[in-house]
Hints:
GO molecular function, one term (chain A): symporter activity
Family (chain A): Belongs to the sodium:solute symporter (SSF) (TC 2.A.21) family.
Subcellular location (chain A): Cell membrane
Oligomer: heterodimer
Strand content of chain B: under 5%
Strand content of chain A: under 5%
Catalytic activity (chain A): L-proline(in) + Na(+)(in) = L-proline(out) + Na(+)(out)
Distance between the termini of chain A: 60 Å
Distance between the termini of chain B: 48 Å
Largest sheet of chain A: none
Membrane topology (chain A): Multi-pass membrane protein
Structural class of chain B: mainly alpha
Amino acid sequence: MSAFSVNILVILALGAIFIASSWYISKKVSTADDYISGNGKLGVAFGTTSLLAFWITGNTIMAAPEAAYGMGVIGAIAYSFLGGVAVVAFSPLGKRIHAIIPNGKTIGDFYKNRFDKKNYYFFLFMVFIYIFGLLMTQGIGGGLLLEQTFHIPYELAVVLTFLIVIIYASMGGFSSVTGIAFFQVMLIFVVVIVVPPIVYFNTGVAPIYEGIQKLAPEKLDLLLPSGILFMFAGAMMGIGEVFMDNTFWQRAYAVRKEKLMSIFSLAGIGWFFVPLATATLAFVAIGTDQAPEQVNQVAPYIAEIYGGEFVSWVFLVGVWSALASTIAAILNSLVSLILNDVYKSINPNADNKKLLKMAKVLTVVIGVLALLISLPKFLTMLQMLIFLGVINAAFVFPIIYGLFWKKLNADVSFWAAILAVIGGYIAYYTIGSLQGVVVSGWISFLVCWIGSLVKPANYDWEKLYRVGAVQEVTRK
Amino acid sequence: MIISAEAFNILIWVSIVGSGSLMFYIFGYFLYELKRKKIW
């Protein structure tokens, strides 16, 4: 049997397991709230893995070694720093979210009630662009990855991945996505703890270090300028993505309040170690002077050389699990946002049955739309992520100040986000892409801070506290 | 600032052992929460 056929079989078998598990989990989903955000009782195991599943994408497993191959040791550390710091930084925010909006469902609940209509609609517009863009990057990035690395034709890879995810995500919504994420993350962990040791037991660490010293000594430099820039711009991008992304807000509402800090901290630690461990495979490529044609294939390339076909399949299982879990989480997050912040505004009297049906229809429609737009493969993953990073960075400080500082003025917050997006994209096109992200973050910070000192507001937190209760009364 | 051979060695094994420890910790928590019916 050819490698291509086996790879397809691996994906079909995994897909069948995910769908069957989702069918089982979906039997406990009876309300629209269960479908879009859980019920605030998610434990440490599922809470942590649902965060890791979203944040560790198939491309993360591939891109971390790519960063290490290009920038050496500091590239590997910077990539891990990017997400780890962001997820850990979200834990105090998550605690605050639980305290001041205990009955919220999405980030839209916060924006609608903390600020005014112009802020809310501008944010919704930008967040839809961002989440849909992210969904496409996963589809396109995943298709390219499966094509280049595992010899599955691009179109087949995209169609197969999206169809399986749409089926299992539409069955049980948030409950299915988080339940299956646990097993997907366990599979990713298996890859991480099995593949690098097999490679290093074959090569030894000392010969690799000596090889890098001889062939590319600059890659052992911890102060390599490109790596340092990547570390700081990447952290800003990561923090922006996490703070703005509804996926994280959904989980902040869904997990048990008393376990929130440990769940987010554990996920942050996981995000630091997992990319770092896979990135170490790139050191072998540098130290032994073995490079694949496409630099993003460096990890599976090295894994296959030292581990053979079996390790290559183990890698496929991990990469595809990571890919599917991220697409499912983003899809469910977008559906939640549309259902809670758009559909409920249009149909405030819709009953639970109608909401649940609409959530399932939206999952299928958005999933198919993302599939169709991903088919032409017109952009690359990293370019799109950095492009969207400008938007993410613009909303970091309206969110942080909005959660903790009653003086943040709604007008100031609106202009901070707009100016940050404009300034960020000017810097993006005139100076450099990563600089655009940093400029956007700085503008967002300075305008929010100085503007609110000059024109302070006096926000009443009680308004946010009443959010869920007000919705219940309205629905009755 | 060049990373030393010892630090390089530690970086590699700590990342692998760290990932493994986290996996077993989360799996342990899963079994514990499953037993106490506090998964969801």
